[in-house]
């Protein structure tokens, strides 16, 4: 339970900073977290759709970004670093009303980089697979000071 509470604290901080995460993913729900991994859910709403009525690739990319960050937070990191690389493979679609299940895993936190994997699915159907690399050297310093991203 400690990992879940910590990740919720980090996510609440992300949302309190405003900006794109708060705008695009305000409905994201943290379901569970253990060391280095977390499970989230998001109901696909009208603002998440592209012009053809499917879940927008930009939203799925944002989910990979945030999901990777939350998996790093689940490693007991208070700050989660900055993105250096993001890769998303769009496997199938999602539509209005679908519940996205977001499984995020931190594969490794090193002294300079952290590597994460994110799987987005609807039921048994994989919607997108993502990999996210983050620069965490400065985040380690913030972690020692127990500062969350955005705190001075």
Quick take:
The chain is α+β, with helices and mostly antiparallel strands and 152 residues long. The chain has four helices and six strands, in the order H-H-E-E-H-E-E-E-E-H.
Secondary structure: elements and pairs:
Elements: H1 2-16, H2 19-25, E1 29-34, E2 37-43, H3 57-73, E3 82-90, E4 99-109, E5 113-122, E6 125-135, H4 137-144
Antiparallel strand pairs: 1-2, 2-4, 3-6, 4-5, 5-6
Describe this entry's structure for a reader.
- With 152 residues, the protein is α+β, with helices and mostly antiparallel strands.
- It has one domain (2-144): Thiol Ester Dehydrase, Chain A.
- It has 4 helices and 6 strands.
- It has helices at 2-16, 19-25, 57-73, 137-144; strands spanning 29-34, 37-43, 82-90, 99-109, 113-122, 125-135.
- The chain has a 6-stranded antiparallel sheet.
- The chain is globular, with a radius of gyration of 15 Å.
- The mean pLDDT is 93.
CATH architecture: Roll
Strand order, biggest sheet? 1-2-4-5-6-3
Low-confidence stretches: none
Share of β-strand residues: 35-45%
Distance between the termini: 28 Å
One letter per element, helices H and strands E, the order comes to HHEEHEEEEH
Q: Can you tell me the CATH class?
A: Alpha Beta
For the secondary structure, the number of strands is 6
CATH topology name, in short, is Thiol Ester Dehydrase, Chain A
Main sheet attributes: strand count, strand direction, barrel closure: 6 strands, antiparallel
**How many domains in all?**
1
Mean pLDDT: 93
**Rg from Cα:** 15 Å
CATH 4th-level superfamily: Hotdog Thioesterase
Shape designation: globular
The number of helical elements comes to 4
